[in-house]
Amino acid sequence: IGARSGRIGRLYLAMTLLVAGAATLLALAPAILLGRVAVGTFLGFLGIQPASLAAPWWAYGVVVAVGLVLPPLLALPPLVNASRTTVRAAIDHHGGGAKPSAAAGVLARLSRSRRLDRGLLLALRNTVRRPARFLLSVGLLAGAGMVFVAGMSLSAGTEAIAEEQQQQRTWDVEVQLASPAPVGKIATLVARVPDVGRVEALNVTQTGVAGPGQLPVTRTYPDQGHGRVSLNALPVGTSLLPAPKLLDGRWLNPGETGVVVLNQVARNHTLPGVRAGDTVQLLVGGAATTWRVVGLVEEKGHGSGVYATAEGFAEAMGQPPRANQLRIATTRHDEPTRQAVADAVNRALTDAGIEVRSAASISRSEAISAGHLGPVILILLGVALPLGVVGVVGLAATMTANILDRTREFGVMHAIGARPKAVRRIVTAEGVFLALSSCLVAVVPTLGLTAVLGAGLGNLFFSAPLPYRISGPAILIWTAVVILSAVLATEAAATRASRMTVREALAY
Question: What's the whole-model pTM score?
Answer without folding.
Answer: 0.71
